[in-house]
Amino acid sequence: MNTSIYTSQYIYIIVALVVIFSIALYIMYLRNKMQNIFLLEELKKNEYQLKRNEESIEALEKKIGRMTEENQKMEIKFREKKEKLLAQIRENKNLLILIDELKNKNAKIDDDVTIEYFVKKKQD
To answer: CA 24, CA 34: separation in Å to the nearest integer?
Structure first.
């Protein structure tokens, strides 16, 4: 009879341990379920933020594309203006050379006129 008491005590202990472990497992299940709900909400937030970031990136890429086009157009205009200015500079240099030549011619003519004047004066 003593053995049956010990056996029934062991059975109660085993049942109690199973109940305790079952409660612990249920608590762990609830805790994991709450964590999963929280992580799911965080995932939704992150997906929404990712979508917004992708849209922002697309908008920036479009803006960069427009700015690149504008920069290329401005480079073309700059080159054209630079070429025009260089042409004007060359033309101005040529004009300065012509002006110097005309000055030299005029100086020579003035010298010739002065000499003729003095020659005529001597002859008179």
So the answer is: 15
